[in-house]
Amino acid sequence: MPRHKQRNLVHSALRVSAISAAWTLIASAAAIVIGLTGDSLALVAFGVVGILDCIASITLVAHFRDVRSGGTAAHLERIALRIVTIGLLSVGLATCVVSTTHLVDRQEADGSSVNVVLAAISLVALSVLSARKHYISVRLPSHVLLADSHLSAVGAVLAAVTLGGTAASSSLGWWWADPVAALAIAVVAIGLSIMLRRES
């Protein structure tokens, strides 16, 4: 690959990691505050996992800055990969616990307007970030950025499940739709974390 193209890709990876860190910090803080005030364990769990994603993105910013300056920063890439792996595992386990609790208690999805708006914005933002990270990671190539794109994708799907579960619960009376779909996502997240752990 030509050096100028490599430099452009590293710059793009740095930029998308910085944007991801900023967005995830804002969205996660909002989710935790809304979850605590509205007594929503799901939002608090989503926010805490988002903080892990933010830390991974900040580590990737440091990594790609070093690469841009001519270094390798392999240790930063390993740290970021560990954080992403922990983040995926945390998403899976937290979602399993919350979804199982909702199924046992027959709890409907929270349809408050604030939750729906946060989920909708998160769905769009995380989908765009995941797609961009995937595009850059394949061309660079960067295994850790690809793994981070999976973490963003899982977050986007969780946001979509929140929206879909709220709609199905309110319009069709399917109170179980949200937790069942979330459990399926949890299994995928845990599977991805195990796969990344084996590859690292």
Draw up the topology in text:
Blueprint: H1 3-37, H2 41-68, H3 74-105, H4 113-139, H5 143-172, H6 177-199
Q: Could you please describe the fold and organization of this structure?
A:
- The protein is built from six helices and no strands.
- 88% of the residues lie in helices and 0% in strands.
- It has one domain (3-199): Alpha-lytic protease prodomain-like (Up-down Bundle).
- The chain has helices at 3-37, 41-68, 74-105, 113-139, 143-172, 177-199.
- By secondary structure, the protein is an all-alpha fold.
- The two termini are 25 Å apart.
Descriptive keywords:
200 residues; mainly alpha; Alpha-lytic protease prodomain-like
Write down the CATH class: Mainly Alpha
| First and last CA, distance | 25 Å
Average predicted local confidence, pLDDT: 83
Number of beta strands:
0
Estimated radius of gyration: 17 Å
Q: DSSP strand (E) fraction?
A: under 5%
Q: CATH topology, anyone?
A: Alpha-lytic protease prodomain-like
Quick recap:
The protein has 200 residues and is mostly helical.
